[in-house]
Amino acid sequence: MAGQGNGLPSGTRWRLGAGALAALVLVGALVSVPDGEERRDGCSGARVTGWRTDERMTRELARYGDDNARLDDWTGGDGTRSVRLPDGRTLWLSADTFLDRVNDDHSRAPNAVWVRNSGLAMSKGERFERTLLGGTDTRPTALFPGTATPEGREVWRWPVQAVVEPRAPGSDEKVVRVLLWQREAGQPPWIFGVPRASEVATLSLPDLRLEGITPIHRPQQTDVERRVLYGTSAINRGDWTYVFGADEGSVSGKASRAHVARAPRGRLGDAGAWQFWAGPADEGGGWQDDPAKSQPILVGKTVQRGATGTYSVVRHKDSWLLLTMDAGAPDGGGITDIVSYWSCSPTGPWHGPGRVVKPPLPEGGAQSGVVPYNPQGHAEFSSRSGRELLISYDVNVLGPGGAVHRNVDYYRPRFLRLTLGSAR
User: Fold this and answer.
1) Are 352 and 37 in contact (CB under 8 A)?
2) CATH numbers and ranges of domains, the chain
3) What is the pLDDT of residues 198-240, one digit of tens each?
4) Residues 157, 244: Cα–Cα separation, whole Å
């Protein structure tokens, strides 16, 4: 998924070179600000103390992808997020998604069918069961349909994080709200699309039927690099849902910046209910209704390091934990390493970085130019003790796209379990 640093499937659309590296990384340097709602230093903090591969989850998704019982279901994708449903199932969301057949040698056809997004339904027993798409059995389309500009340029949607919330405040009926990034086909350096808008889709429960899509925020900056899209992470906390986002300054080598907004529980799909963090309240900031007043949040005390535009935020006990590829690492290894930051508040200050892991690649991946990106926490799969966190990371190929057709493993999420401890 382009906005998340993914290549586009198939043929010439999919040729990524070294010049696309900046867009792949989407460097986000994040700025520290106090929140005032929670004590700045009143938590135990969170750090990663160890990791192990989760072969069971990686194999389960591969089993589903390799099953040719249907040829209109998921065989590869990225942009991996998940949300636990009230009945115990899990909805997984995928951006650019390959469908079609997987061959006996683990390859796919060079012209394999693909769509801009899809959903995956996982049973309570953690078995992937079906792919959610639009269209028909013979002509599948994206779950969240795209459009086009008056000039005919493609406009597509990538799903990011989702939450379950009341249909309206106080309602007993629950729905799934899916945050979407709307992007428009563009010319270099916008090879992953020009950011257009943040939206919220509503899926009914329990049937996961798309009911509609609501515009939330369409950034107005003429400087496209500073347009913020929201939804890389979303967390229900108390009476609010906190939604994290980032701009895309790194497309031309500048630093991206992260932002945070919030909406009352049950009103995530109501654009008028959103509030945007505008900096310290004693400086005239606080939470504001006007998205144009949003100010970046900072990770660390300086901008020597930062996060990618698809960082992930989860809660760990009384703290907030941010996971990201190590953009801006002094040794140039940020494209390969995951690091963490922690905070007592969604608006910071954020402490770190702490090294997490150099994610393992599929067999033969290093020789084929495979890179990891988009680490995402899946808190609903945490251990009961809270000491282990399931994370996924996507992989793709920098360079000619033929490798992801020769080996489907080169465009499928992989999974790790992180061991967590206090940072103090």
Assistant:
1) no
2) 2-421 (2.115.10.20)
3) 999 999 999 999 999 999 999 988 889 889 999 999 999 999 9
4) 18
State the Cα–Cα distance between residues 39 and 37, nearest whole angstrom: 7
Strand duo 414-421 + 118-122: pairing: unpaired
Cβ-Cβ contacts under 8 Å for 177 (sequence gap 6 or more): 162, 163, 164, 165, 200, 201, 202, 203, 268, 269
pTM given for the model: 0.90
Residue that is written with structure tokens 């020769």 in the block: 406
Distances (CA, A) of 276 to 147, 195, 303: 28, 19, 22
Please list the residues that pair with 181 across neighbouring strands: 158, 198
Residue whose pair of structure tokens reads 């700045």 in the numeric block: 40
Half-sphere exposure of 257 (CA within 13 A, CB side): 15
Average pLDDT, the chain: 87
- Identify the pLDDT of residue 188: 87
Structure tokens at 367: 């020789």
- What is the spatial distance between Cα 206 and Cα 351, in angstroms, rounded to a whole number? 40
Instruction: Report the alpha-carbon distance of residue 395 to residue 83 in Å, rounded.
Output: 21
Please, are residues 75 and 106 in contact by the beta-carbon 8 Å criterion? no
Identify the band that residue 385 occupies on the pLDDT scale cut at 50, 70 and 90: confident
- Which tokens sit at 188? 């270099």
Torsion over CA of 9, 15, 18 and 24, rounded to 10 degrees? -20
Nearest to 121 by CA among 1, 233, 206: 206
Residue 205 amino acid letter? L
Confidence of residue 25 (pLDDT cuts 50, 70, 90): very low
